[in-house]
Amino acid sequence: RVHGDCTWSHLHTQPELTMKFVVAFVALIAVASASQLFSDEELSVHFDRFKNDYGRSYPSEVEESTRKQVFGRNLEFIFQHNIEASLGRRTFTVAMNNFTDMTNVEFRRHFNGFNNMGKSKAPETHQAVPVEALPATVDWTTKGVVTPIKNQEQCGSCWAFSAVASMEGQHALKTGKLVSLSEQNLVDCSTAQGDQGCNGGLMDNAFTYVIQNKGIDTEASYPYAGVDQTCEFNSKTVGATIKSFVDVASENENALQSAVATVGPIAVAIDASQQS
Fold this sequence. Notes:
cysteine-type peptidase activity; mainly alpha; 2 domains; Putative cathepsin 1, partial; 2 strands; Helix Hairpins
């Protein structure tokens, strides 16, 4: 487990940006400020496409105007960043996604729900295997132990998704059956262990809850709502149980590499507080 804020930033790493535009603006970027990259008409075209692609609608003209301005600033950041990437000044590209009409402050407030609450609650630490002894590549998605991508929506429940993915993987490795487990079960029911639902939590607390609760419900029986609800755990619809958990040494990439290669999908938290 790696400490940090989790979920993805509103400008995530992605290689598919239309490079024709990037090339066309390489010469321009040296003399143009961000506010000069798009005319009002061009921005409107991009914003309308964004709204159509992501099903966006806004409650008022004032809100739509505000979101359009935020979208414009983020779009300018995307193009400037990718132009610099094409010149070798950046090592990755960024692209438009579902969060491009949100400010970075709004994104962090809504989605970064990892709460580092101090000392680990794991009884022990993973005993790392030397990197030299590990396979060159490991892809657990090809081994039938990873469920399809899920969406936490506007709830700071990334900790629950991280914990669930790890438990789904271990359950599949143990039983040969991949079962989608309930993040909402953790959001609603693990407050006694220290989690705070959509206001954040910790994977160790989630694991502790599942151990003490003698299981976690299936996704099908306890579907995700993306809001805090009353705990509705049902012991008759448990999808998996765990007996223990361990932590991976903090700030140790070799230890994480060892855990991923030898244990299975690992619960991690990713720092998504930066604009890029």
